[in-house]
Fold this sequence. Notes:
Radius of gyration: 27 Å
Strand content: 35-45%
Mean pLDDT: 76
Low-confidence stretches: 1-28, 103-136, 478-482, 534-551, 558-562, 586-592, 606-634
Number of helices: 8
Largest sheet: 11 strands, parallel
Amino acid sequence: MRFGKRLVALFMVFTFAFANLGVANVSAAKKPKLSKTSVSINVGALVKLKVKNGKGTWKWSTSNKKVATVKKGKVTGVEEGTAVITAKKGKTKLTCKVKVISDTEINTSEETTESTQNKPTTEASSTTEDKNIIKSDSIKKVDATTFDNKVKEIDAVIDKVKNSKVTITKSDTFIQGETYTKTAYYLSENGDDYNDGMSEASAWKTIDRLNKANLSYGDAVFFHRGDTFRGSITCSAGVTYAAYGDGPKPVITGSPENAGDASKWKLYGSTADGGKVWEYYKDITDCGNIYFDNEPAVNHRIAPSRKDGKFIDDSGNEFDVLKGLNEDLMFVSFADSKLPFDMTGFVDVESQGERSVGKLYLRCDKGNPGDTFKSIEFGTLPKGFGAIFKIDDGVKYSSIIDLNLKYSCTCGVMTCSSENYLVKNCEISCIGGYVINYKNGVPERCGDGMCLSGGNCTIDSNYIHDCCDSGITIECGYSNDFRTFNNYRIINNAIMPGAGNNIHFAIFNQDLDNPILFSNIEIAHNYLYMSNNSWAFPFRGVDYGNGIKGGSCLGLGEGELAFYTERLSIHDNVIYSENSGAIEGWLYKNIYSIFKNNTILFSDPKYPVAILRTNNEYMDWYRLNGQDLDGVKFLNETIGSDNTFVVKSK
């Protein structure tokens, strides 16, 4: 602290000296000011004020504690009214006028400009205590047939996505998801990479050729329906990736090849119980899962720990393939070529760039896998890193439309602080299971259908299923400098993910004085269905048995976190999870997610919702799972009366 004060003093001396030498208004340029001078917030909401160009300790105060309180710049709305927040240091006073309201409409500060392109139609409003009462008619007990028919409504949503056909046309005006303005490029299984790719008759053949193209803002790339293309794509700014022709959606896959060919396997040996273990003919990158005739090897990946340069079993001995693969269709992937010898501590596999490769062994008791199955696809990536579609930092207005993304060890779509992206009418499936890192030699597996960051995005009318981790994750990592997540619309999707959550806010941030802001987020008209039903085993390095526990349909936070929300609206969704909670979250004190007009289905009134809540300012959370609580009381304490709860009568 003393050193900091000396720096401030030196800075003031130099500022004064330069001012006397005629340097143009240096002190004025560095004059302290608040990040906001006026702001409107809901009752119970929070906004963080910062002093710009003002180092040192500032004393915060409020003109009316009944309206708004303040602590270290964090302002919390208490009741409707107006208050003035003051930051004072010495003789310097900075003020911000705060209006606390309970209406659904919230005005941002006069200094903040937001994109309205993807602004949610329904914004968050405060749920006051007297309104948050479960009415008797909010809980409907129905017979098994009625209940099951409600669950089956998702089938119509899935069929609609699968059979959708979006037409992208050329125009002088670029409208994201509807038009392109410059050049169209085409890819077809019958194409040729020596073509120019600029017409259906002169289409390219491979993603490798596409990745060499110099695409421009306003271009479009069309994949022929009914065809399969292998590889991963890094999106270009302002480029639309879509489909053309007739038939089912074109498949973009991370699997390097179809291994349903007897020549690609050789017998490695026999197990003590008469099983047969086969070795794949070449080294491949880490394989999250194997899909036999489009079906996953359920719970059959073995991911051994690693110690002293060797993979080891549960007893600490070197892993024996013939002993370890003790069930039919079990497999093990030894992608170890670039792993460090010493695995003590934390080893981030993902950050190594091009992944390690190694042998893959599969037990198939019926005989050669290539003879047993017509199709064998690997949940991996041919280049060993990234996702099927990746949108890099700073890339804007990329669109992914009408495609079928499947078989990847990492993600279907991954964005990295990109903005204004659109993913619409896609099917995303069979994702994840790869080893993302080792903690003291113990593997942690992961993989989301979509892993999102950045802002101003729309995720609309997609069918996401069979993922190792979550269907959609909005993620901020420990090292993520992108502090604000604005303007997300997640609408009209059908999501049946896997071992994790259907929709998940994953926040890893321990800086309590600099929380992450999630602002203007709408989650609406989605079917969030059957989370925790997964082939993933183990999940995140933890043995959950058959992979049906440990997640929820809607997860609102993770880890040691500091975050707050503005205008979070969760409405008109159907939420159903048979084996665990429908909703799970870490909620910052006085910050409430707004749930309205959702239909929440549960078979047992003892387990309607699972919530993790804070009981102090940031952490010290505890779990409520409904086991010892009256169902109505529990719902009353969590998401309120503006929703319908459907219980199957016994």
